[in-house]
Amino acid sequence: MNVPSRVPVTVVIPTRNEAENIADCLASAAFADDVIVADGGSTDDTVALARAAGATVLERTGPTIAAQRNAAIAVARNRWVLAVDADERITPELAAELPGVLAAPLHAAYRVRCRNFYLGVEQTRGGWSRDWHVRLFPRERRFVERRLHEGLEPIEDVGELQGTLIHHPYRSLAHHIEKIHRYAQWGADDLFERGRRARWSDLAIRPAWRFVQSYVFEGAIRNGRRGLVQSLLGGYSGFLKYAHLWAKEEES
User: Fold this and answer.
1) Domain at 73, CATH number
2) Total domain count for the chain?
3) 63 vs 2, more confident
4) Over pLDDT 70: what percentage of the chain?
């Protein structure tokens, strides 16, 4: 498939200590005529590698991923923006699709499906196989600034792209668990600031239901031991978030 070059789209990538990922991510975005890396204070070689690859780098752009994205969007050179994470890769199919879409947009924004890989294997069944996010949008739009699961502000007219993003969210099982602990704290902080408090059911019933929902109803059971590990860790993640929330209540 012929991948175009110099497509009039701005690719924005938030980073923080992504030296292992940034070069491959930027290579997949080489077709774009404007690539902006919004760094949140990396202490590794992320910034140097991004600059060496030709990207525009904004340093210390905010405390959250949403703030980093928004800082990059604010200086985008093009009308349309494609938001990508450092652990994602733009497929040749998506790159080839963009020129036609941008030449005559039929929708106010577009969602893209992420093809998630877990411990080296693509997850084609279960909730991880149905992972869509609005990633292509005009530069007037912004992400809602919260610590966890940031999303673009609501848009009614959203189309779907055929091309996909390749997503490797975890380098290893240890990395998965490390991110669970970090994200659980962020999630608790967001809930606490919104006035939410942990109930007994949040600590006991919600994590168990999250496991059952993922493993049984979303079909992770068909992914063998990977599906079991994913679902158990998903339940643990939910428990840990509300345990942190409860602890913040006790400390306040």
Assistant:
1) 3.90.550.10
2) 2
3) 63
4) 100
Question: How would residue 224 be classed by pLDDT, with cut points 50, 70 and 90?
Answer: confident
Tell whether the model's pLDDT for residue 229 goes beyond 90. Answer: yes
Name all contacts of 145-151 with Cβ < 8 Å and 24+ positions apart. 145/62, 145/64, 145/66, 145/67, 145/70, 146/64, 146/66, 146/190, 147/63, 147/64, 147/186, 147/187, 147/189, 147/190, 148/183, 148/186, 148/187, 148/190, 149/187, 150/64, 150/65, 150/66, 150/69
What average pLDDT does this structure show over 55-84? 94
Range of the domain at 133: 7-167
Q: Choose one of 110, 140, 167: the last residue of a domain.
A: 167
Q: Is residue 161 located within the same domain as residue 225?
A: no
